[in-house]
């Protein structure tokens, strides 16, 4: 384990400062001081890695996690924690007159992800390292991460997230490990030594340059790597000979088109658009990643026939599915293997996770576009499809409907989910219900064809970031109460259960919650000038803004509560602060209107004296990992209110639970498993069941107009959307009104309204009984350990990747 004493640390730090900035520490600003500390920490981790390399014999199976998104957030705090030197550093810095917490706030979030899927990848990296699994990330180094959200006059405005404008101290550029990725051109077929060979000619080469970020495990000295690829022109394509030929503009065009590949993260995770640039991004990082894995494998003397014994490649959703044909290409065209051998190796190396059942997010590429951009990969996909369709024919002769549903290529498209299922040995969903829906509904044809491929791996979150780092007071309370065994074995948090009736622990928990609420309210005051009552219930919904997540349902009940308060200013309710945060995809009109509506009701309610500050609404700008770390520990209520069946898992639900919030939830995604852990009395469940939702979808019979006409509360609040009650421009919220009425309320907001309001009444009653409330809170914390991503990764390692137990510490 790594150890450093305070004085050595201080010396190292001051030295690092001079080396980096060329001047004395005392002249620097906070950002420079952060950079020096970050660089020093990176050096410490690098040294550990170098030490490890001396003893590593490269025999352990290596896992590669391919993902278009890694939403790491800030790394300084988590690296210090994992190195086990946070306290020493804090003291040392104090002596130099620096507050570590303040210094940390100068780190820019690394926001290379849209939401849950990207953050999950980041939690997995932390857990793989902490479980001593050699597991590495592979992705894209976007120059611009997820956009920065500004709220101007109540509306979302997007600004580019130029996160690299400040030095990223964690990454190291590795030009010598660059790879060439080939786009376009033609494939010439030739017989060479009796073997049909495929020669890719006239292609446009792109240089993929890796940037490595080391990932350190928690107090175990394991060091893994996150490799993000950046697209650059192949150097000799952009040289002076071009200029001398007068092709200056052409050269610039080439440079720009290449750099565009890793320029920007697509900011939408629910609506799929067949954009050529996205296909380029996918092939770019997958090809670079697979090439570098294979060349490394061979460098260490690996036998390609046994690739799957040494390497597991996991694809995070369908975005990296081209790993399948790319690995085939290398095995066929470079390693000269037979199709049968190449296919056996590929399909025993690659595994796939599905993260959504939303049909509009399922990727499919127009064949013509695909063929033009990736001619050799196209040929391979075509061959995979033909062979697969032949197998289908053998089993389902003349069942044309089924065969065409399952085919990889049909109707002019290549269907990535079908390719991912056929080309991998494991397909998993991310929560029990989600996996069941995949098996029984969305992917049922495939499930009956390959029953053994399908399995569930319920998501998790790293308890190191989402408890120890973001809620140190709660973490210390746990340590004082039940010891620190849970840090290594998070399910041991369950020992807290026996304190569920301990008034002393409840009081301490209440105080910690209060402190976290004060910290959040100060942040809100400083950033938005809004005063909030820290004795009020902090009722929080933070996540991407989307119709299926039903921020609208939440808004409708706030509008209803407001109406009640106006009618009866003495209404006996517990004061509540409704906190929202989240980004809308820039092209998603309805979601942007929802943000406007939240801000409109906030303005109206917060300024209405009749409300007497009993309720307040706050929309926090620019939701991101580091903001979540402030909001979540301060929440009393966690709103997880998606339409049942739509949220594959959810992960913020787990973060809130671990921080002692009480969940108000539909029986969707992992909410069900949270309920199973804490039991019905310690979670507030409402809304349609899976069966009711599926019946509406299959049999119809839902009419939102009927509800509107029969429920006077709903009638009034919907009318208020379009009569100028919340906006001078009466038409401003027409789209939301239409969504709920004209288009028959696709996500059943109105259907669940009454049940939701009743659930909130239960919250109100429960919160008055503080002893009961904190007992529930303790139970939630105690039962949250199972949702650590250590458990999830342990299950992946054992059940999918077959990582030997010797390298994966038993839980
Ligand atoms: C889809 C697309 C479609 C094309 C444009 C760009 C893009 C980017 C990402 C995605 C993935 C959407 C799937 C997703 O984010 N699923 C979320 O995954 C979480 C982790 O498993 C899970 O907790 C959430 O419930 C699920 O919505």
Automatic annotation (TrEMBL):
Please name the top-level EC class of this enzyme: transferase
Which GO MF terms are attached to this record? glycogen phosphorylase activity; pyridoxal phosphate binding
SUPFAM superfamilies, alphabetized: UDP-Glycosyltransferase/glycogen phosphorylase (SSF53756)
Requisite cofactors: pyridoxal 5'-phosphate
State the UniProt keywords alphabetically.
Allosteric enzyme, Carbohydrate metabolism, Glycosyltransferase, Pyridoxal phosphate, Transferase
Catalyzed chemical reaction(s):
[(1->4)-alpha-D-glucosyl](n) + phosphate = [(1->4)-alpha-D-glucosyl](n-1) + alpha-D-glucose 1-phosphate
Q: Which GO terms are recorded in the biological process aspect for this UniProt protein?
A: glycogen catabolic process
Gene3D superfamilies recorded: Glycogen Phosphorylase B (3.40.50.2000)
Q: Which InterPro entries match?
A: Glycg_phsphrylas, Glyco_trans_35, Pyridoxal_P_attach_site
Q: Which Enzyme Commission numbers does its entry carry?
A: 2.4.1.1
For the keyword Secreted, the answer is no
Which positions carry N6-(pyridoxal phosphate)lysine?
655
| Any one of the GO CC terms | cytoplasm
State its role.
Phosphorylase is an important allosteric enzyme in carbohydrate metabolism. Enzymes from different sources differ in their regulatory mechanisms and in their natural substrates. However, all known phosphorylases share catalytic and structural properties. Allosteric enzyme that catalyzes the rate-limiting step in glycogen catabolism, the phosphorolytic cleavage of glycogen to produce glucose-1-phosphate, and plays a central role in maintaining cellular and organismal glucose homeostasis.
To which protein family does this belong?
Answer: Belongs to the glycogen phosphorylase family.
What is the protein's given name?
A: Alpha-1,4 glucan phosphorylase
């Amino acid at each position: 384990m790594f150890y450093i004493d305070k004085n050595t640390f201080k010396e190292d730090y001051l030295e690092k400062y001079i080396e980096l900035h060329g001047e004395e520490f005392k002249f620097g600003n906070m950002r420079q001081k952060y950079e020096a500390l970050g660089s020093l920490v990176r050096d410490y981790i690098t040294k550990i890695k170098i030490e490890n390399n001396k003893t590593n014999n490269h025999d352990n199976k290596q896992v590669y996690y391919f993902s278009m998104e890694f939403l790491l957030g800030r790394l300084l705090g988590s690296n210090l924690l994992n190195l086990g030197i946070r306290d020493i550093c804090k003291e040392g810095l104090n002596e130099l007159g620096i507050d570590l917490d303040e210094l940390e706030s100068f780190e820019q979030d690394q926001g290379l992800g849209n939401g849950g899927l990207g953050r999950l990848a980041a939690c997995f990296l932390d857990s793989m390292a902490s479980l001593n699994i050699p597991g590495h990330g592979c992705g894209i180094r976007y120059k611009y991460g997820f956009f920065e959200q500004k709220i101007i006059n109540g509306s979302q405005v997007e600004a580019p997230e130029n996160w690299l404008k400040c030095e990223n101290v964690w990454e190291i550029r590795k030009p010598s490990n660059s790879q060439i990725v080939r786009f376009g051109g033609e494939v010439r077929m030739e017989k060479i030594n009796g073997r049909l060979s495929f020669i890719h000619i006239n292609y446009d080469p792109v240089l993929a340059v890796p940037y490595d970020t080391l990932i350190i495990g928690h107090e175990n000295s394991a060091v893994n790597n996150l490799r993000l690829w950046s697209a650059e022109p192949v150097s000799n394509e952009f040289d002076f000979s071009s200029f001398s030929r007068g092709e200056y503009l052409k050269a610039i065009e080439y440079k720009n088109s290449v750099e565009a590949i890793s320029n920007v993260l697509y900011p939408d995770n629910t609506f799929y658009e067949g954009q050529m640039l996205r296909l380029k991004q996918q092939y770019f990082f997958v090809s670079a990643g697979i090439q570098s894995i294979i060349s490394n494998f061979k460098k260490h003397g690996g036998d390609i026939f046994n690739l799957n014994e040494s390497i597991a490649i996991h694809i995070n959703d369908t975005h990296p599915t081209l790993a399948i044909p790319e690995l085939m290409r290398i095995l066929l065209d470079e390693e000269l293997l037979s199709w049968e051998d190449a296919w056996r190796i590929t399909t025993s190396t690659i595994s796939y996770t599905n993260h959504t059942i939303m049909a509009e997010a399922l990727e499919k590429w127009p064949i013509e576009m695909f063929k033009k951009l990736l001619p050799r990969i196209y040929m391979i996909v075509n061959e995979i499809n033909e062979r697969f369709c032949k197998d289908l024919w053998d089993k389902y002769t003349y069942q044309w409907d089924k065969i065409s549903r399952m085919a990889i290529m049909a109707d002019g498209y290549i269907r990535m989910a079908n390719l991912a299922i056929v080309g991998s040995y494991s397909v998993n969903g991310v929560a029990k219900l989600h996996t069941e829906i995949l098996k029984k509904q969305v992917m049922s044809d495939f499930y009956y064809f390959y029953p053994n491929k399908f399995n569930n791996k319920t998501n998790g979150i790293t308890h190191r970031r989402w408890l120890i780092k973001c809620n140190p007071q709660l973490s210390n309370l746990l340590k004082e109460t039940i010891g620190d065994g849970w840090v290594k074995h998070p399910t041991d948090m369950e020992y807290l259960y026996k304190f569920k009736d301990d008034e002393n622990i409840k009081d301490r928990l209440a105080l910690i919650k209060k402190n976290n609420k004060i910290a959040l309210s100060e942040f809100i005051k400083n950033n938005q000038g809004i005063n909030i009552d820290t004795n009020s219930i902090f009722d929080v919904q933070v996540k991407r803004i989307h119709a299926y997540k039903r921020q609208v349902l939440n808004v409708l009940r706030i509008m209803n509560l407001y109406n009640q308060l106006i009618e009866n200013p003495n209404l006996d309710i517990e004061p509540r602060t409704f906190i929202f945060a989240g980004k809308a995809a820039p092209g998603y009109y309805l979601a942007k209107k929802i943000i406007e509506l939240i801000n409109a009701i906030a303005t109206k309610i917060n300024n209405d004296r009749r409300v007497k500050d009993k309720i307040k609404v706050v929309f926090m700008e620019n939701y991101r990992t580091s903001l979540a770390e402030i909001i979540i520990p301060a929440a009393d209520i966690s709103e997880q209110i998606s339409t049942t069946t739509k949220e594959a898992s959810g992960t913020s639900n787990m973060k809130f639970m671990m921080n002692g919030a009480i969940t108000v939830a539909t029986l969707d995604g992992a909410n069900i498993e949270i309920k199973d852990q804490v039991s019905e009395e310690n979670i507030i469940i409402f809304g349609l069941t899976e069966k009711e939702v599926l019946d509406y979808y299959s049999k119809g019979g839902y009419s939102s107009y009927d509800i509107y006409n029969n429920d006077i509360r709903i009638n009034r609040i919907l009318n208020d959307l379009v009569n100028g009650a919340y906006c001078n421009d009466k038409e401003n919220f027409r789209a939301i009104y239409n969504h709920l009425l004209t288009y028959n309320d696709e996500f059943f907001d109105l259907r669940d309204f009454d049940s939701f309001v009743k659930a909130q009444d239960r919250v109100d009653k429960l919160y008055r009984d503080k002893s009961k409330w904190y007992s529930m809170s303790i139970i939630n914390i105690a039962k949250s350990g199972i949702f650590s991503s250590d458990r999830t990764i342990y299950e992946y390692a054992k059940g999918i990747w077959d990582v030997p137990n010797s390298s994966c510490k038993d839980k």
